[in-house]
Amino acid sequence: MELFIPDLKKAKGRFLKFYAEIKVSGSGVKAYQDNDPVLKVSLQAAYVNNRVLIKGNWQAGFLGECSRCLEQTNFTLRESFAEEFIHLQAGEGGGTAGNISEKDEQFLFKGELLKLDEYFRQSFFLSLPLKILCHEDCKGLCPICGQNKNKSSCSCTDESTDQRWTPLKHFIEKDSGGV
Ligand SMILES: [Zn+2]
Ligand SMILES: [Zn+2]
Q1: What is the 132 CA–ligand 2 centroid distance (Å)?
Q2: Is there a single domain that holds both residue 105 and residue 148?
């Protein structure tokens, strides 16, 4: 995704609408049929005081394994964003043409194009959750028999009432009582 700065300047500070689809490789997650996830980006951009302001949102679908029940599930991530990029003028130091660089927590760029692919790629990486769930209240797998408890319940008993531990419990109580 690239914004052409002369077009933004012509709009004299008004926000213009843009839409782009950005394929993200190397994220470690895959979408349907082993494809790289695609970010669908809707944004508005304006050029004000040598800065490009952008705001909008993106969404991307990918496949993953639920960390509780291990079922393969389709996930959709959605993020909104608002950012500004300082447009370095001819003769100003720092920045390379077209590409965004970072200095003192600010984004800088030079030239007539603002290339945003890498910005959104990073944004996608940062929003990938460490743990994914097929749904909020996924019941997970039974730790004893491995049954997926979302599909059917099993007859395994809770560990606290498991009869196998009863003799050991007596032993521990007798031992500590004798000292
Ligand atoms: Zn699950
Ligand atoms: Zn079970």
Answers
A1: 23
A2: no
Select the more confidently predicted residue: 81 or 169: 81
Confidence at residue 51, expressed as pLDDT on a 0 to 100 scale = 96
Radius of gyration of the chain (CA): 27
Residues 92 and 177 in one domain: no
Ligand with an atom nearest the CA of residue 158: 2
Centre of ligand 2 to C-alpha 63, Å, is: 27
Does residue 45 surpass a pLDDT of 60? yes
Query: Residues of 104-126 as b/e, b for ≥16 C-beta within 10 angstroms?
Result: eeebbbbeeebebbebbbebbee
The answer on 93 and 121 residing in a single domain is yes
* Residues 84 and 146 reside in one and the same domain: no
